[in-house]
Amino acid sequence: MNKLLIAFFAAALAAGCGRSHTSSGLSAGEGFIDVPGGKVWYRISGSGTATPVLALHGGPGFPSDYLAPLTRLADERPVILYDQLGCGKS
Fold it and tell me: Is the peptide bond before 36 cis (omega within 30 degrees of 0)?
């Protein structure tokens, strides 16, 4: 599972290469990452130079909607939300 999660976020960062980059190296925006079994939705909000926040939602089957208030931190740092495969927008 950890290897899949690391691969997912490496792919998410690579997928943003065509977008405008922030000083942290992450691109604001949203998209989908192809993974075995489907596509996983992600959104990167904010720019800032502080350490990014990676929000891992609970579940199973519980989407990231309730973590949206964390995007208030996006003026200081990138905030990454995603929906696990099979729930929310994934």
Answer: no
